[in-house]
Amino acid sequence: MEAVVEATDLERTYGETVALARASLTVERGEVFGLIGPNGAGKTTLVRALTGTTEPDAGSARVLGTEPSAVDRDRLGVLPQDFSPPDRLTARELIDYYAGLYDDARDPDDVLAAVGLADADDTWYENLSGGQQRRACVGSILVNDPDVLFLDEPTTGIDPAGRRTIWTLVEDLAAEGTTVVLTTHDMAEAEHLADRVGLLADGQIVAQGSPEELVATHGGSSRLTIETTADPDAFADLEYPVERAATRRRSTNTDAVIVRDVTPAEIGTVVDYLEARDLEYTGLTWAEPDLEDVYLALADDAERERTTSADDRTPTETATAGETA
C-alpha cells in the first residue's frame, strides 16, 4: 500500500509545554485514521504539523510524498476545530465562495446535498443550528474534491442524525480513495469510521491498530453489570471476578457491581446465584469491551506513568519545574 501521510518522530514544544514527543504514524491511501486522546495530548498540534501550519522542532512529516507546506492545496481539505465562517453568508454563498477558489471545483448543489443542507441553502450561517453550521464547514472543505482530508473533531455539536450524515459521507469518500485523518473524542465515531486508530498521550502515540486489534489487546474482559445495592463481598463464592462499578464508566452507577469474564450463555448462572442468596437487583446489562475501555485503560496508564515520573524527580528537579511552570 502507498503511504499518503507520514509522521516520523515529530517533536514540538511551546515553552515548557511538550506538545509532541517523537510522535510517529503512517496512513495509507483510502484509509481512515482516527486520532484519539485526552485534551492537551497533542492531537491538534499533530494535525497542524501534518498540514504545514505548524513547524515541528524535530522529526519529519510528509503528505502525498512531499513536505506538508509544499503540498498542492487543491489536493488537501482541512477542517480546523475552531473554523468560523462569516455569519452573514448563506450556506450556499459559503459553499460558492470556497468553490470559487479552485479551478475545478465540485458543483455546490452536490456538496450541499452531500452534507444534508439542500433545504437550508438560503439560510444565513448565523441562523443555522450548531449541527448545520458544522455540516456547512465540512462542505466548504469538500468543494475541491481533495485527495487527503484532515478533520479536527468533525461532528462536534452535531445531532445524531447529522452525525450519521457526516459518517456516511466520510465512508463514501474513503471508498472512492480519499485518505482521511480525523481527531475525535467520540469513541463510537472512531470505532465506526476508522480503519486504524492511534491513541495520543503526552505527545506520543502509545498504541495504534484497528479498533478490533486495540480492543483485543487492551480492552479487557466482558462485563455483566448488575444494578444492586449488594456489596461485592456478597459475591465471594461466585466463580467470576466481581468489582464495584466505577462511576467513570458509562451506563453504570454507584449502586452496581460488575462481574467479569461472563459469556452470554453464563448469565443464567449468575442469576441463579443471585436468587439462591436472595440478593436483590433491578437490572442486568452485559457488554463486550469496546474502544472506550481501551481509551480509559491507556489514558490511565499514561497518566500514572506521568505521575510516577514526576514523583521520582529529586526535590531540586521538582522545585525547578515549579519555578518554570
From TrEMBL:
Q: Which Pfam families match?
A: ABC_tran
- Could you list this entry's UniProt keywords, alphabetically sorted: ATP-binding, Nucleotide-binding, Transport
One example of the protein's molecular function in GO is:
ATP binding
Where does the ABC transporter domain start and stop, copy by copy? Answer: 5-227
Chain intervals for the UniProt region annotation (Disordered): 302-325
Q: Which InterPro entries match?
A: AAA+_ATPase, ABC_transporter-like_ATP-bd, ABC_transporter-like_CS, ABC_transporter_ATP-binding, P-loop_NTPase
Q: Does the keyword Manganese apply?
A: no
Please note every region of biased composition (Low complexity). Answer: 316-325
Q: Specify residue ranges for compositional bias: Basic and acidic residues.
A: 302-315
Record PANTHER family: ABC TRANSPORTER ATP-BINDING PROTEIN, ABC TRANSPORTER ATP-BINDING PROTEIN NATA
Q: Give the family this protein belongs to, as stated in its UniProt record.
A: Belongs to the ABC transporter superfamily.
Name of the featured protein: ABC-2 type transport system ATP-binding protein
What species was this sequence derived from? Natronobacterium texcoconense
